[in-house]
Amino acid sequence: MDKTSMPIAPPLYQRLSLTLLGLCAFFFILWAGQSIIVPLLFSMLLAMLLDPLVKRMVKWHFPRPLAIALAVLFAMAALVGLGYFIVTQAAHFSELMPQLKEKSADLMEEAKHWVMNTTKVKPQEVDNAVDKVKEQSMQQSGSLVGQTLTTVGTLFGFLFLLPVFTFLLILYKELFHVFLTKIFRKNQHETLDDVLGQTKGVVQSYLVGLLFEAAIVTALNWVGLFAIGVKFALLMAVLAALLNLIPYIGIIIGTIIPMAVAATTQDMSAAFWVLALFLAVQFIDNNIIVPMVVASRVQVNALMSILVVLIGGALWGIPGMFLSIPLTAILKVIFDRVDGLEPFGYLLGSGDAPGSAEVKDPPRK
């Protein structure tokens, strides 16, 4: 072949520029289409979770569409029941707002006096700082109300799309499988079936494990908060367990809320007891519950876990934080089994970090 006819590889800066432009376009599409993409992703995870139940009912001679409808109705009833409990308890919790406001004002005064006595700051400077914080809070309250209304509107759309998407994804599961087999060459079908089987197994075991973990953590939190005497202990326990599903960040928020309630309705000693309780529950969760209950999952190292949670939160808010780890687990399964992408799977995993234990994938069936 003539050297002049040989293809010329583009320079490195050109390839990097095209890659960055492609990534920017990809993330912009994810952000702009979140009203459709987020319910679709949640529906995909829920469809994987409900698929064994559908198969079991089909074996019991239920018609497949009826089995899918019953499984989806069962899942939606559970979600609606959880949402109803949180809303009703939060409505009763609002009755404490005047008391919380009064107690917060007292704590603010005590903190102000402590600052003045400890740092020798002039009273006028402390008052100016407090007024500035109050002014900023009032300015942000308007945007917070707007964001809340937007979230409520999005929630109604989400609750409508979630069961519809879930039903159709399970119903047309074979159609999607045939579609993928038509895209890839025949010599790649074995790898494709391996990736799909491993992905479904990992997601199913991960989600079921999270449900059991959330139930156990809720029970431990409720018993401890009830013993301390924190009001609305069950609501605080449920919220903390749900927030615990967001790695690293959620547990911090889930601890601050009951600590604030304990400090305002009782005293600071109660808040410290709440902190001690959540530290103990978190220790039990990390060292006993997760290894025993959530053992069959792809392990993602701590650095990547934090990064994907922050990226998910920046793209889609709290739903993105919930979705970040399961989606990363799916990507790791794909990276580990596709030629040329193994380095990215290794980067997401624990690697050879000291003290890291590699968690094996569930066996293929």
> What is the helix fraction of residues, given as a range?
over 70%
Please report which band the strand proportion falls in: under 5%, 5-15%, 15-25%, 25-35%, 35-45% or over 45%. under 5%
How far is the first residue's CA from the last residue's CA?
49 Å
Over the alpha carbons, how many angstroms does the gyration radius reach?
A: 25 Å
How do the helices and strands follow one another from N- to C-terminus? HHHHHHHHHHHHH
Backbone structural class: mainly alpha
Per the principal axes of the C-alpha atoms, what is the gross shape?
A: globular
Number of helices: 13
Mean pLDDT level: 77
Tell me the number of strands.
Answer: 0
Runs with pLDDT <50, length 5+?
Answer: 138-153, 353-365
User: Largest beta sheet, briefly?
Assistant: none
Please tell me about this protein's structure.
The structure is a single chain. The chain is mainly alpha-helical. It is 81% helix and 0% strand. The chain has 13 helices and no strands. α12 (318-337) packs across α13 (342-348). The chain starts with 11 loop residues before the first helix and ends in a 17-residue tail after the last helix.
Compact description:
This protein is mostly helical. The chain is built from 13 helices and no strands.
Label this structure with key terms.
365 residues; disordered C terminus; mainly alpha; 13 helices; single chain
Question: Helices, strands, pairings?
Answer:
Elements: H1 12-32, H2 34-59, H3 64-93, H4 97-119, H5 123-171, H6 173-183, H7 189-228, H8 233-243, H9 249-265, H10 268-293, H11 302-316, H12 318-337, H13 342-348
Helix pairs in contact: 2-3, 2-5, 2-12, 3-5, 4-9, 7-8, 7-10, 7-12, 8-9, 9-10, 11-12, 12-13
